[in-house]
Design brief:
Blueprint lengths: L3 H14 L7 H10 L4 H11 L3 H12 L2 H14 L7 H6 L6 H14 L7 H10 L3 H14 L4 H8 L7 H11 L3 H9 L4 H9 L1
Helix pairs in contact: 1-3, 2-3, 3-5, 4-5, 5-7, 7-9, 8-9, 9-10, 10-12, 12-13
Length: 203
């Protein structure tokens, strides 16, 4: 891994090994910062190995400044999940991107971080309530449920679009809620918003 022109294939092989290749993580982190043409291979390998999460989270904001590395860095952060949650603020900043794809990926990455992304709830709530794109709003709902499933405002937001959903979409929501579905219904029935109460009844 000391020479990217020889070892980019090695990075991919280490990624394929997964967590058992954790001893290579420090060199992969160095490669992710210093290689000129194959940084994405090192970043992707780190996501598969899931070692040294705090160190990867520390370099992730800088990596995401490079548009060519942003997607693969988000992918790796999602693989790390809570192990790289220190990067959550930098990920949440992308919720304000002009690109729907980036807002979607940011929400999905925060969802993978779970409770480690709890500090980003307000930004996710704003996206869930007001993003112009329904798919982005849905990803924000999913992230909120993954991060704070017992938050009453999160539960209310998760019901916001239920009245407009097809039965198949409603089934998906119920599956995601799992054992928490009765709690969502209870919160919705107590809402002072008729639309939310109607959604709870339908759910």
């Amino acid at each position: 891994l000391d020479d990217e022109y020889v070892n980019d294939d090695t990075a991919m092989a280490l990624g394929a090994i997964g967590p058992d290749a954790k001893a290579a993580a420090p060199k992969l982190i160095a490669a992710a910062q210093n290689w000129k043409e194959s940084q994405s291979d090192a970043i992707r390998a780190l996501g598969k190995i899931k070692a040294n999460g705090e160190e990867f989270a520390a370099i992730a904001p800088k990596l995401m400044e490079d548009l060519d590395l942003r997607d693969v860095t988000l992918e790796a952060l999602a693989e790390y999940g809570a192990g790289a949650a220190d990067a959550a603020p930098a990920v949440a900043a992308l919720l304000e991107s002009d690109e729907e794809r980036e807002r979607t990926r940011a929400a999905q990455t925060l969802a993978a971080m779970g409770e480690g992304a709890k500090g980003q709830l307000e930004k996710l709530k704003a996206v869930a309530a007001g993003d112009e794109n329904r798919w982005v709003r849905q990803q924000a709902y999913d992230a909120l449920l993954a991060i704070a499933p017992d938050d009453p405002q999160v539960l209310e937001l998760s019901l916001a679009e239920v009245p407009e959903m097809r039965e198949s979409q409603l089934d998906d929501i119920i599956e995601k809620l799992g054992d928490g579905a009765p709690n969502v219904v209870e919160v919705g029935l107590k809402s002072d918003k008729p639309l939310i109460r109607a959604a709870a009844i339908r759910l």
